[in-house]
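User: Here's a structure from my thesis project, written as structure tokens. My advisor, Dr. K., wants to see whether a designed sequence matches the one we expressed. Can you design one independently, without my sequence as a hint?
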């Protein structure tokens, strides 16, 4: 009897779980079938989105590759790729309603993996893969064209993404473009211990940092510029407005009792949704303790292991991720700031680990499954 695992989400965690099950569990559980559902037909390496907005630095195939190609090596009866979005989950009937271009589909599962991550509240920016391949490509193309001609750019939100966006722009264009980073808080990075280091790096690049400058709203003007209204009443007119604040969990399709008050999946130590025995979650959708590429990979490995155990009639094991909180911020294409727990690391280390490539060399290995 076929054992079906439906995986929702075609990014770091979802693709990681699907490949691990097919590579390592399928040989021992011959009747296993994995169905991977993704709105985006391509794996979008969103870590590189902060650099991809700068025209000419990256080719599309360096940050976006077709997902289905990477699974072609598996037997046709063991894998199915569905381009679509989850609309509703029935944990009693063990079904997922999926919306596709050709209409609705109802998928039955024995185990369900929720790995749909988070989205940018503002769909005009590419920091997350908010929609289809075509939609993501169009957003990037539009921003690249505007970056090319803009003389004045406002980046709103001074978390890690905002700092990296401002740094990439300032690193490439120097004094040719005025780059302003707005921080709603009194310090960037929410006052993290790295704040002073990253501030120093951004200052060297010429980024103008405005602290305690929280955005109230923005509107496009008739001439194509954007007016940004701050909470104190100040108005800033800019050629390009890039908001990086505001992320929401992609969990609307799940029953409310499976979610935390912040709408992330409420999981136990096995990364199983509380109150269930066959619904699992990994990646930014759990936000534990934060959204992170490294955390998503470790969580995906743990979920795949526990589904493997469940299919073999064995109890789950506690999923272990990182022993400390890690934060690394790339500040352009030559430097960066980071810490391992409370211990700060050298700029050159952050550059080598993250800033040099933003991990794009790993994209083909994720898509093909050789990373797992």
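Assistant: Designed independently from the structure alone:
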């Amino acid at each position: 009897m076929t054992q079906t695992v439906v995986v929702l989400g075609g990014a770091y965690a979802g693709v990681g779980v699907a490949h691990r099950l097919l590579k390592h569990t399928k040989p021992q559980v011959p009747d296993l079938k994995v169905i991977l559902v993704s709105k985006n037909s391509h794996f979008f390496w969103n870590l590189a989105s902060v650099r991809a907005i700068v025209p000419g630095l990256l080719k599309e195939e360096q940050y976006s590759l077709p997902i289905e190609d990477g699974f072609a090596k598996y037997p046709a009866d063991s894998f199915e790729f569905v381009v679509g979005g989850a609309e509703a989950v029935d944990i009693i009937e063990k079904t997922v309603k999926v919306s596709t271009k050709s209409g609705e589909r109802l998928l039955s599962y024995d185990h369900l993996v929720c790995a749909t991550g988070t989205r940018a509240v503002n769909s005009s920016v590419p920091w997350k893969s908010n929609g289809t391949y075509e939609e993501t490509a169009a957003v990037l193309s539009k921003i690249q064209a505007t970056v090319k001609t803009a003389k004045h750019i406002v980046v709103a939100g001074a978390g890690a993404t905002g700092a990296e966006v401002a740094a990439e722009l300032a690193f490439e264009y120097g004094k040719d473009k005025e780059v302003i980073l707005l921080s709603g808080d009194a310090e960037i990075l929410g006052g993290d211990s790295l704040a002073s280091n990253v501030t120093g790096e951004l200052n060297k690049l010429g980024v103008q940092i405005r602290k305690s400058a929280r955005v109230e709203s923005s509107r496009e003007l008739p001439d194509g510029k954007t007016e940004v209204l701050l909470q104190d009443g100040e108005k800033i007119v800019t050629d390009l407005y890039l908001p990086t604040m505001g992320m929401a969990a992609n969990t609307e399709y799940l029953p409310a009792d499976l979610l935390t008050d912040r709408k992330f999946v409420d999981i136990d130590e096995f990364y199983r949704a509380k109150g269930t025995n066959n619904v699992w979650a990994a990646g930014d959708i759990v936000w534990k303790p934060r959204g992170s590429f490294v955390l998503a990979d470790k969580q995906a490995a743990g979920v795949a292991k526990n589904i493997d155990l469940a299919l073999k009639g064995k109890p789950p094991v506690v999923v272990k991720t990182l022993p400390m909180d890690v934060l690394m911020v790339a500040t352009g294409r030559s430097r960066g700031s980071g810490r391992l727990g409370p211990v700060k690391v050298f700029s050159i280390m952050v550059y080598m680990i993250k800033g040099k490539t933003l991990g794009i060399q790993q994209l083909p290995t994720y898509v093909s499954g050789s990373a797992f």
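When you compare it with your expressed construct, this may help: The chain has a mean pLDDT of 96.
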